[in-house]
Amino acid sequence: MRGAFTNIPVVDVSALAPGAAPEARAETVDTLRDALERVGFAYLAGHGIPRAAVENLRELSRRFHALPDAEKMALKMNDFHRGYMPFSTSTIVTSTVDKVTRPNQSESLMVMHEVPEDAPYAGEPLHGPNQFPEDMPELRDAALDYMERLSALGEMLSGGLAEALGLPKDWFLPYFDTPTLFLRLLHYPEQKDEENLFGSAPHTDYGFVTILAQDEVGGLEVRNKDGEWIPAPPIPDTFVMNVGDILARWSNGRFVSTPHRVRNLSKRDRYSQPFFYDPSMEATVACPEEFIARGETAYSKPVRYGDYLLERLNKNYDYRKKAS
């Protein structure tokens, strides 16, 4: 039953890789379908990303956030949504889960897809330069390597998601010819146990899928249909993957974009590195014609992904409100 869960399932996705036996792939697709229709979240095992790549980036994130404030502020967010986001400067006012009035208790470095200077779309919204500290060149190398690895994982997952919806394996590929990619290196200091104060307030994610590496501290919680907040504790060598609002729209509501939040009451600093794998800015997200042919009714209107995304960013981030 949709939203009826007390834990988050583990899905071994190794059979989605090229060369896997068809029977194993079909079984994995079935397991993934059940997880995303019922929970909207899954732990991904068998993903093929080396532990060293995850842990190296986490350590570099710790080093970045330990820099003096002046060095981090030299990289403050630019108009292309890249750079340093100081503590308490994002408030999820577009949340459909709760009325959010207090900013998130976190700071982060936002990295997005690299944009070649000669790209025809260079300079357009969200297509500009990333920002990294000059004295940490290894952070840039590690972040871009990590994004390349997780982009490949996102593409692999998209094939399984298409099949889980009864679509051809390559159905999503044309919508990701220049994917919109976000890597957010988050630091959640220890927070007070106060009402309506969160590391990340209750929300659903905007996009296609989120692939999260969290440290050993914990604090992520997912809400079921009964309104209970179910912990999503770290499991070694897995990612937490969840459906975003755009995938929920594309699936015509079959896959659920489930509310979640972060409360860091551990008395320790928490570090996480969510990666957001989203379609091209120009992609039109609409209920698949195949669904309509089967007699379904589209539950949402078509939307250009870039327009949809910019509306949410403009409302939720202080630096964009001041610029508008």
From TrEMBL:
Descriptive protein name: 2-oxoglutarate-dependent ethylene/succinate-forming enzyme
Per the UniProt record, which EC number(s) apply here? Answer: 1.13.12.19, 1.14.20.7
GO-annotated molecular function: 2-oxoglutarate oxygenase/decarboxylase (ethylene-forming) activity; metal ion binding
Residue ranges of every copy of the Fe2OG dioxygenase domain listed in the record: 179-279
Q: Which UniProt keywords apply?
A: Ethylene biosynthesis, Iron, Metal-binding, Oxidoreductase
* InterPro entries attached to this UniProt entry: DIOX_N (IPR026992), IPNS-like_FE2OG_OXY (IPR044861), IPNS-like_sf (IPR027443), Iron_ascorbate_oxido_reductase (IPR050231), Oxoglu/Fe-dep_dioxygenase_dom (IPR005123)
Could you confirm whether the keyword Iron appears in this record? yes
Q: Name one GO biological process term.
A: ethylene biosynthetic process
KW Iron (keyword) present: yes
Which Pfam families does the UniProt record give? 2OG-FeII_Oxy (PF03171), DIOX_N (PF14226)
Q: Which family does it belong to?
A: Belongs to the iron/ascorbate-dependent oxidoreductase family.
The coenzyme or cofactor needed here is:
Fe(2+)
Catalytic activity of the protein: 2-oxoglutarate + O2 + 2 H(+) = ethene + 3 CO2 + H2O; L-arginine + 2-oxoglutarate + O2 = guanidine + L-glutamate 5-semialdehyde + succinate + CO2
Pathway(s): Alkene biosynthesis; ethylene biosynthesis via 2-oxoglutarate
| PROSITE patterns per the UniProt record, alphabetical | FE2OG_OXY
